[in-house]
């Protein structure tokens, strides 16, 4: 011990600074670690006002712009200006431009302070190919509404987690290009853009109710979206963490066994055990005749397996009724023993 003391005294000039630096680095690591997604406060967004510019982005599949003239006219009739991303009119296989072009358009729209909100053209496939090309730090410093659903779920998951801003699961330009939308959808979209939607219970179409699958109460930020996309992100750096979150799930055109397979993936990945509750949206056109298990059976099974409060009937997804649902904002689920349910936002998505 005496020899060790002499050795330390001899080299303390070198050792003490190293010990101090090590302690500082440890403290920085501990205090800078990202908090749980479920409790992490997301940067909120500003509402739009008349005359503001909305950027139209195609991060996934392409679409003939002549099909979307009606949607653009709708935005203009609401008092907004429209700016098209360059790749919106591109046709690159089944994508709207190369990955580099589409990612640049998204980064540019966030960086451009004259663009006050971003509405996606459509889903399809391709958003996940952009995730390693986005400037998440820049996006964090330019929060604005990013609106879309379906394949856009990949952007919601990655940007919400890595940039820490509120995004919007809601109607896209494709939602309004034909007649397959309702006054309910238009009301929510219009008032969501302008910031006129109140917090509190989510709106429901006339005659529709929320139903309990597994009873209980839970509070957390709302996250999630399309089941197919969320399952595909499992095992990647962009998978949804969902700690303490209310998990929104929807899909379209999937047979019960395929929904089962993807729900099993979420279960095996641990996501269903990390969330505080599950809120099922529309599974539109998803139950072929003759299946032994229905979509409802499958969803109810995984609700019970998760052991978390779960509800169904949220008008979100590919159906004609589609809510404007802020992601990254705190909400509460009351799944009651009598079978009724309440889904309520506890705070606004707006600054």
TrEMBL record:
<feature type="active site" description="Charge relay system">
    <location>
        <position position="318"/>
    </location>
</feature>
<dbReference type="Pfam" id="PF17676">
    <property type="entry name" value="Peptidase_S66C"/>
</dbReference>
<keyword id="KW-0378">Hydrolase</keyword>
<dbReference type="InterPro" id="IPR027461">
    <property type="entry name" value="Carboxypeptidase_A_C_sf"/>
</dbReference>
<dbReference type="InterPro" id="IPR040921">
    <property type="entry name" value="Peptidase_S66C"/>
</dbReference>
<dbReference type="InterPro" id="IPR003507">
    <property type="entry name" value="S66_fam"/>
</dbReference>
<dbReference type="GO" id="GO:0006508">
    <property type="term" value="P:proteolysis"/>
</dbReference>
<comment type="similarity">
    <text>Belongs to the peptidase S66 family.</text>
</comment>
<dbReference type="InterPro" id="IPR027478">
    <property type="entry name" value="LdcA_N"/>
</dbReference>
<dbReference type="InterPro" id="IPR040449">
    <property type="entry name" value="Peptidase_S66_N"/>
</dbReference>
<feature type="active site" description="Charge relay system">
    <location>
        <position position="250"/>
    </location>
</feature>
<feature type="active site" description="Nucleophile">
    <location>
        <position position="150"/>
    </location>
</feature>
<dbReference type="Pfam" id="PF02016">
    <property type="entry name" value="Peptidase_S66"/>
</dbReference>
<dbReference type="InterPro" id="IPR029062">
    <property type="entry name" value="Class_I_gatase-like"/>
</dbReference>
<keyword id="KW-0720">Serine protease</keyword>
<feature type="domain" description="LD-carboxypeptidase N-terminal">
    <location>
        <begin position="54"/>
        <end position="170"/>
    </location>
</feature>
<protein>
    <recommendedName>
        <fullName>LD-carboxypeptidase</fullName>
    </recommendedName>
</protein>
<feature type="domain" description="LD-carboxypeptidase C-terminal">
    <location>
        <begin position="219"/>
        <end position="333"/>
    </location>
</feature>
<keyword id="KW-0645">Protease</keyword>
<dbReference type="GO" id="GO:0004180">
    <property type="term" value="F:carboxypeptidase activity"/>
</dbReference>
<dbReference type="GO" id="GO:0008236">
    <property type="term" value="F:serine-type peptidase activity"/>
</dbReference>
<keyword id="KW-0121">Carboxypeptidase</keyword>
């Amino acid at each position: 011990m005496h020899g060790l003391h002499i050795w330390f005294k001899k080299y303390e000039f070198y050792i003490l600074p190293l010990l101090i630096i090590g302690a500082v680095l440890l403290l920085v690591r501990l205090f800078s670690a990202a908090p749980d997604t479920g409790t992490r406060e997301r940067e909120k967004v500003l509402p739009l006002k008349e005359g503001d510019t909305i950027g139209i982005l195609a991060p996934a599949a392409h679409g003939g712009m002549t099909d979307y003239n009606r949607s653009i006219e709708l935005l203009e009739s609401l008092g907004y200006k429209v700016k098209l991303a360059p790749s919106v009119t591109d046709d690159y296989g089944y994508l709207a431009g190369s990955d580099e072009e589409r990612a640049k358009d998204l980064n540019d729209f966030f960086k451009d302070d004259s663009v006050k909100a971003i509405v996606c053209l459509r889903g399809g496939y391709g958003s996940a190919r952009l995730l390693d090309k986005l400037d998440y730090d820049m996006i964090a410093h330019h929060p604005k509404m990013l609106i879309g659903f379906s394949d856009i779920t990949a952007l919601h998951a990655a940007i919400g987690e890595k940039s820490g801003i509120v995004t919007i699961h809601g109607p896209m330009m494709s939602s309004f290009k034909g007649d397959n939308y309702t006054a309910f959808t238009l009301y929510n979209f219009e008032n969501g853009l302008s910031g006129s939607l109140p917090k509190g219970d989510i709106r429901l179409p006339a005659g529709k109710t929320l139903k309990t699958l597994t009873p209980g109460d839970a509070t957390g930020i709302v996250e999630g979206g399309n089941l197919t996309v969320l399952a595909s992100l499992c095992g990647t750096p962009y998978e949804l963490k969902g700690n303490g979150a209310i998990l929104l799930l929807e899909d379209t055109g999937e047979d019960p066994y395929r929904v089962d397979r993807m729900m099993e993936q979420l279960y095996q990945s641990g996501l269903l055990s990390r969330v505080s509750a599950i809120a099922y949206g529309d599974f539109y056109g998803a139950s072929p005749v003759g299946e032994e298990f229905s979509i409802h059976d499958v969803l109810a099974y995984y609700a019970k397996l998760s052991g978390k409060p779960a509800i169904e009937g949220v008008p979100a997804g590919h159906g004609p009724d589609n809510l404007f649902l802020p992601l990254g904002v705190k909400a509460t689920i009351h799944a009651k023993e009598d079978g009724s349910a309440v889904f309520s936002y506890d705070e606004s998505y707006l600054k």
